[in-house]
Design goal:
single chain, 281 residues, alpha/beta, Rossmann fold, 11 helices, 10 strands, 36% helix, binds thiamine diphosphate, binds iron/sulfur cluster, binds magnesium ion
Amino acid sequence: MTDDLGTYAENTWCPGCGNFAILNAVKSAVGSLEAKGVGRERIVMTAGIGCHAKIFDYLGLSGFYSLHGRSMATAQGLKLGNPDLKVLGFCGDGDAFGEGLAHMMYAAKRNSDITIVVHDNGVYALTTGQRGPTSARGYKGPSTPRGNTEDPFNPLVLMLEAGATFVARGYVGMVKELADLMVAAVEHEGFSFIQVLQPSVTFSNRYAEYNETVVPLEQPAASFDEALALARKTETLPAGILYRIEKPSNERALYGDWNPVANHPTRDERLAKVKAAVGRG
Ligand SMILES: Cc1ncc(C[n+]2csc(CCOP(=O)(O)OP(=O)(O)O)c2C)c(N)n1
Ligand code: SF4
Ligand SMILES: [Mg+2]
């Protein structure tokens, strides 16, 4: 690990990949959080498997490198294990809305106090560009040589409907705004979701399209229905916090202010409990 939150791992992302901007935004967000008193030892990360997940190798934070489709499950485990942690889960679109879809829906439903950042490039990039859950209709790749015959999932709508209490969209062409979104998401107590539009220059280069269609959103929607309407827009793509409400997080509802790490029983206390349970206390 280096002082600037970097690591000594060789970076193998393609030149121009949108993932670089996400890495820079996270570093900036961690700096802002530290300035606000959230020490970096309290900020932990997890990632799935994919190009996005290499962020785990390049970012000098503690964490747990997970499996494809299990980043958000691992993030929930980290938070349950120690609710004082601020947990960042990095996912790909395939990770989050393919194999990990059920985990995503339930994490949002139970309002787990984690932040999920989806690097949405609309393809399975690491495995060389197969169609994924957010690929556009007509997308041509190795698994759809004649074009994708399915419409993409809308991640924002899915997360809103599942119960996410913070739903945002960022764009790698707006790094400062993306860093601000990450800070706000980490500060939000409850399930915070950021869809980051992250073109894969190699397999789905949509920079020109996004530069035309992404528009900054000044403030969150005033109601759930308004947020859904914003999320469904296609001619322009609002970027910012679409929806944010206060609701007790799962961990707060389960634990209150109790922390299983701080209140961990000693070995003798655990032995006494076991003996009592088997009638030998
Ligand atoms: C359990 C499991 N299923 C499938 C794979 C194969 N696999 C690795 S990366 C990947 C796709 C990654 O796509 P995405 O999550 O969108 O990430 P990206 O590479 O686009 O950043 C797949 C299917 C795997 N490694 N493990
Ligand atoms: S294949 Fe795409 S997502 Fe992966 S590093 Fe290259 S440009 Fe980025
Ligand atoms: Mg992808």
